Amino acid sequence: MENFNGFNLPPALIQALQKLGFTKPTPIQAQAIPLALTGRDVLGSAQTGTGKTAAFGIPLVTRLINNPSSAALVLTPTRELATQVLKQLTELIGHPTHIRTALLIGGDSMGKQLGQLRAQPRLIVGTPGRINDHLMRRSVNLSKTDFLVLDETDRMLDMGFGVQLEKIVKHMPTDRQTLMFSATMPTNIMKMAAQYLRNPERIAVGSTIAAAPKIKQELIHMPETEKYGKLVNLLEERNGSIIVFVKTKHGADRLAQKLVKHNHSADAIHGDLRQRQRDRVIQNFRDRKHRIMVATDVAARGLDIPHIEHVINYDLPQAPEDYIHRIGRTARAGAEGSAVCLITPADGEKWRAIHRLMHPGEAPPPRSANAPRRFGNSDKPRSPGGFKGPRKGFGGGPRPFNRGGRSAAKAS
Ligand code: ADP
Ligand code: MG
Questions:
Q1: pLDDT on residue 11
Q2: Residue 14: which of 67, 61, 64 has the closest Cα?
Q3: Is the pLDDT confidence value at 258 over 90?
Q4: Pocket test for ligand 1, best of 23, 33, 50 (most atoms within 8 A of CB)
Q5: 178 pairs with which residues across the strands?
Q6: What are phi and psi of 216, to 5 degrees?
Q7: Among 80, 197, 327, 371, which residue is least crowded by beta carbons within 10 Å?
Q8: Residue 213 main-chain phi, psi, to 5 deg
């Protein structure tokens, strides 16, 4: 599909797409949209940053425009993602007053949400916990909501929302259309799909295991004590917005404070912040008021901030899958990006688990110090020019030594 005209979309939606600058469907959109428009249930997976939101958003908005008695619910794992998804859907709707919406997320004012619900919204986007709160209070009624989207379903299950999802779906008509999206398709997702979807069409674009192709990845091995100094070097050598992932909430706060003390423009985001604070940190980062966002994995999935150029894994993630989601925060929509991993001797086993996930069937890296093939490998940082792609001479063989480069470039 060369452009969106072949889909027979409502003119208002075509206009909205033009305004957004979406001229050509992404591969997952090209496959999912025509199927969903015929009313089929869809189980879709594609790499991060490939346009899954519009893949369900375009059929959703088409249905709401063409069918005034139809209503839709979109469930996402996090509040931030719900906010971002509703924003994109509102842009697709074009006229904000035309189809009323509600954002039902935890940590947000109940009064505001009750007001939105009284206005009979035809589109609700939210997180499972808060939607169940409303179902219990009977402030929301889903008995006529005949279009359901589950976004980032793998993450929702990881976060323990399985039971909540089940409760919500029970309030919806069985005669509905359901689209389920997930970056990965483990067996628990397939099971859930069998339960919630009717004769779904399964769409998988590209390998869901591999990271997006334009992310240049680099490993840096070092002792724990040198991590902070190395991070500062990396931050100074790079331009553009950077997200730094750490293990703990406390660690995120501490690292951001330390960076600020050393005159870096940084802020922290993690699950202990109030919703309003989280929104502010993200908004400031979006507006480039802070160049560096130090985050726990709460920010790892789904967030779409196009100008994130680098992801630095200061600590490795607990779950290997999270690595793919973390680095998927950069190189969005075909842009280029880079990901750097700081690896200490204690990280050996964790790194091997990530490597196994990214390279199924391949031999594990012989030593923790030996980087897998598709990654840059350096015990000393390399020059920015050395960032351009995989380097020769590693894999099973002895570890090459890359000296100099970056430190020389740093002076400039
Ligand atoms: P995913 O959910 O697959 O991780 P998103 O839906 O967040 O990805 O989309 C990633 C980025 O790509 C967003 O900035 C979005 O605006 C942009 N995008 C989506 N579809 C298109 C398109 N057809 N043309 C251009 N940009 C697009
Ligand atoms: Mg998404």
A1: 92
A2: 61
A3: yes
A4: 50
A5: 148
A6: -90, 125
A7: 197
A8: -70, -25
Range of 69-73, 330-334, 338-342 with top mean pLDDT: 69-73
Burial 175-195 (b: 16+ CB within 10 A, else e): ebbbbbbbbbbeeebeebbee
For CATH 3.40.50.300, the residue range(s) in the chain are 4-205, 215-358
Q: Which residue has the higher pLDDT, 393 or 339?
A: 339
What's the CA gap between 28 and 205, in Å, rounded? 6
106-119: pLDDT as tens digits: 988 999 999 999 99
Cα 142 to averaged position of ligand 2 atoms, centre (Å): 23
| Nearest atom within ligand 1 for CA of residue 48 | 4
Q: What is the CATH number of domain 215-358?
A: 3.40.50.300
Q: Does residue 52 have its Cβ closer than 6 Å to ligand 1?
A: yes
Give CATH superfamily name and number for 4-205: P-loop containing nucleotide triphosphate hydrolases (3.40.50.300)
Q: Looking at residue 21, what is its pLDDT?
A: 92
Find out whether 394 and 373 touch, Cβ atoms under 8 Å: yes
Residue entry with tokens 């922290």: 268
Average pLDDT, the chain: 81
pLDDT of residue 166: 94
What is the reported pLDDT for 333?
Answer: 57
